Amino acid sequence: MLYDNHNRPIQYLRLAVTDRCNLRCFYCMPEEGIKYLPKHQLLTYEEMERIVRVLAGMGVSKVRITGGEPFVRNGLMDFMRTLSGIPGLNELAMTTNGVLTAPHVNELVELGVRSVNLSLDSLDRERFRQITRRDELPAVLNTLDALLAAGVQVKINAVVMEGQNTQDLGPLAELSRQPGVSVRFIEEMPFNGEGTHYPVLNWTYRRILNELQQLYPGLQKVPDGPFSTSYDYQIPGYAGTLGVIAAFSRTFCGTCNRIRLTAQGTLKTCLYDNGVLDVRALLRAGASDDELRAAFLKAFAHRPANGFEAEQQRAPVTESMSTIGG
What we know:
Elements: E1 12-16, H1 45-58, E2 62-66, H2 76-83, E3 91-96, H3 105-110, E4 115-119, H4 125-132, H5 137-149, E5 153-160, H6 169-173, E6 181-187, H7 205-215, E7 220-221, E8 230-234, E9 241-245, E10 258-261, E11 266-268, E12 277-278, H8 279-284, H9 289-300, H10 307-312, H11 321-324
Parallel strand pairs: 1-2, 1-10, 2-3, 3-4, 4-5, 5-6, 6-9
Antiparallel strand pairs: 7-8, 8-9, 10-11, 11-12
Helix pairs in contact: 1-9
Subunit structure: Monomer and homodimer.
EC number: 4.1.99.22
Binding site for S-adenosyl-L-methionine: 27, 68, 119, 189
């Protein structure tokens, strides 16, 4: 087992394979998009594979592929096939916006992917278009249907935004009628390439939960997973679950078991830090596996206690979640 300086296990890597995305969600990036990195500044698949092998040997057992949108990078499925064969890696998962995903669902299942996080902030086509600045809701719903038909567990991630989609809480919650579906409502974070939209975040996790309790008075608390970021609930008679994620309030830091690697090779031991290790530079300078392990251990030994401490140690947040890795 691998532990940080606060005795939290580190078992879970969120690996961004690209900073590019085919949507322009306003809470993630400006309408004109962000300045994408040139290809040579991104990690190659071979470099990412080596990093995962080293971390798997240290105790990381789960990798979630993120972006940007993973499927906009060519060769993704070949890379995932390679990852699926790495010793010690017991769980391979993905976060996607679903626009390009449906044709690959059967192959994902063949590779052992049993869980997919699907970003979906509205079931209303016009609101979806306004939020994402693209008219792609039918493609996303097609992916949802394909995933469920293939027996994949789907976590629907919906960012709750004042004046944008708060009327969608009920319609989205209704998706939890189906088995294999967890609908998670997430506090908005400031990672939109511009800084936070609101002087004060009004739709906190407490308000989201209160709204759900008004919509469903019989809402029942169910056990949270050991390293869960969400407070989990169930509507009586529904097969799936609801979750509320305090991503901005940061109430789950004490049990965080995850680290992030951005597409350009920056290690983040907290979502809110500014990056703590340039892994790409180490790789391209010829670092051995032992030197990589030593660098990782040093970074894990100085991990912030929580997201507030991490944010205090950096300049104001201005980057896009697409650059960070979802």
